[in-house]
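Bumping with the actual sequence this time:
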Amino acid sequence: MSLHLPALRTSPVGNFLRAAVGTLYKAGRFGLLAEGFAALATVG
């Protein structure tokens, strides 16, 4: 890629990508927690 990292970091596209990745990461962690609670509920 010809884009430099600092330029990507300060660009709107870079901000959007970081926000999207952060949202997916948080959603994934929440999904894992929900699955864990569901497993505990079925076991208990």
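The tokens above came from a reply further down the thread. Residues 1 and 8 are 11 Å apart (CA to CA).
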